[in-house]
């Protein structure tokens, strides 16, 4: 399997003048915002710092001050700092903000590409419980604090820098990039070249009817792995490119699992049956839950997770051990919390059974048609 690291090793010697920005570059720049630069950059500082210098500052940090989401993020930064393609790009206006009371997690960084454009990279969901909670809040709120912060950040940077704008992010970061572009003033929208959404969730139906969202539609480039679940959540406008991943299931959300060949992603014709199954299941589930019930379910679920000290494990959703601890905690909860959790899970199970039944009937009908063709 070859991925973004191989891309950096094979094509890192080519500047943007020799090879213009590629889709793979947008994923790399989106992943840069996953770094926690608070020890080496001042927030909202307009003073540009080259990626080469930034990599050296991070490398010089003592281990106890090196905060990371994934060790591969560090590898990516060091490779970028050594490559001709990236090392002279400059970063500025770094911001990292978590507000527990407002249930908000937001971080972004601006990269001056050196070709007259700049790339705003929005961080996706980090390892904090608040970050995951805010993602789930998207299922019942028209907008969440991180989306408002993303829009404000775009305006701030656009006012302080000249030139065309590129936006991007992975996971929630992709959603933030699209949201910020959709709600910004027309004079800023006109400066936007493209918006990259790497397996980020969609929006509630109201956003799809918003004129600003319709206006930026042609500028949105969406990418999902073949078994995408996160990127298929809720609704979106337009199509998407399917990228082959070396992982399975939900682990395909990992950007470092996406396969690259030459200067492009390894592209597939469509998402897998598994992705279609969960897409339909989760959409049916959300339809069955009123916004009030969604809110109760999410609040109850994350109240339990907070009691399991999920932040300490760093795996809120993906950890089976954490799921077990959550269920253990549930037995001691009040009846209202239990009811909210079990009502949500019951409707999810009903949606799973319905989707499975529909797929079973479809496969049966397909088999019958094949049998008829043979008889003919």
Number of helices: 15
Q: What count of domains describes the coordinates?
A: 2
**SSE succession:** HHEHHEEEHHEHHEHHEEEEEHHHHH
Number of strands: 11
In CATH, the topology of the largest domain is named: Rossmann fold
Which CATH class of the largest domain?
A: Alpha Beta
Biggest sheet layout? 9 strands, mixed
Helix proportion range: 40-55%
CA radius of gyration is 22 Å
* CATH architecture designation of the largest domain: 3-Layer(aba) Sandwich
Q: Structural class of the secondary structure composition? A: alpha/beta
Describe this structure in words.
This protein is of the alpha/beta class. It has helices spanning 4-11, 23-32, 51-59, 71-82, 129-137, 145-160, 172-183, 186-189, 205-208, 211-216, 273-288, 291-307, 310-313, 320-330, 335-375, and strands at 49-50, 90-99, 104-112, 117-122, 164-170, 192-198, 220-225, 241-243, 260-261, 264-265, 267-268. It folds into two domains: 4-271, Rossmann fold (3-Layer(aba) Sandwich), CATH 3.40.50; 289-375, no CATH class. The strands form two sheets. A nine-stranded mixed sheet has the order 1-2-3-4-5-6-7-8-11, sandwiched between helices. The protein has a two-stranded antiparallel sheet with strand order 9-10. A hairpin with a 4-residue loop joins strand 3 (104-112) and strand 4.
């Amino acid at each position: 399997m070859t991925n973004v690291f191989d891309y950096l090793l094979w094509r890192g010697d080519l500047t943007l003048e020799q090879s213009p920005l590629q889709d793979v570059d947008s994923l790399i720049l989106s992943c840069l915002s996953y770094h926690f630069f608070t020890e080496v950059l001042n927030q909202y500082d307009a003073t540009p710092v080259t990626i080469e210098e930034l990599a050296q500052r991070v490398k010089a940090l003592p281990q106890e001050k090196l905060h990371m989401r994934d060790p591969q993020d560090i590898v990516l930064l060091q490779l970028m700092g050594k490559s001709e393609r990236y090392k002279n790009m400059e970063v500025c206006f770094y911001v990292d903000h978590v507000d527990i009371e407002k249930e908000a997690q937001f971080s972004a960084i601006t990269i001056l590409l050196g070709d007259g454009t700049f790339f705003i990279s929005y961080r996706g969901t980090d390892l904090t419980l608040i970050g995951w909670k805010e993602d789930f809040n998207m299922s019942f709120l028209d907008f969440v604090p991180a989306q408002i912060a993303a829009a404000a950040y775009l305006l701030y940077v656009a006012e302080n820098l000249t030139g065309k704008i590129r936006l991007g992010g992975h996971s929630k970061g992709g959603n933030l990039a699209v949201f910020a572009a959709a709600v910004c003033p027309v004079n800023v929208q006109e400066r936007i070249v493209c918006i990259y959404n790497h397996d980020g969730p969609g929006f509630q139906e109201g956003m799809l009817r918003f004129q600003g969202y319709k206006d930026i539609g042609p500028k949105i480039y969406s990418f999902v792995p073949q078994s995408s679940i996160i990127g298929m959540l809720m609704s979106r406008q337009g199509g998407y490119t399917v990228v082959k991943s070396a992982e399975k299931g939900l682990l395909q959300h990992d950007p470092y699992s996406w396969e690259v060949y030459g200067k492009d992603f390894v592209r597939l014709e469509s998402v897998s049956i598994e992705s279609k199954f969960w897409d339909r299941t989760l959409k049916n589930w959300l339809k069955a839950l009123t916004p009030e019930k969604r809110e109760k379910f999410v609040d109850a679920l994350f109240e339990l997770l907070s009691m399991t000290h999920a932040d300490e494990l760093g795996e809120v959703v993906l950890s089976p051990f954490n799921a077990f601890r959550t269920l253990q905690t549930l037995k001691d909860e009040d009846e209202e919390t239990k009811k909210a959790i079990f009502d949500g899970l019951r409707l999810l199970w009903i949606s799973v059974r319905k989707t499975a039944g529909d797929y079973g009937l479809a496969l049966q009908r397909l088999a019958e048609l094949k049998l008829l063709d043979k008889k003919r």
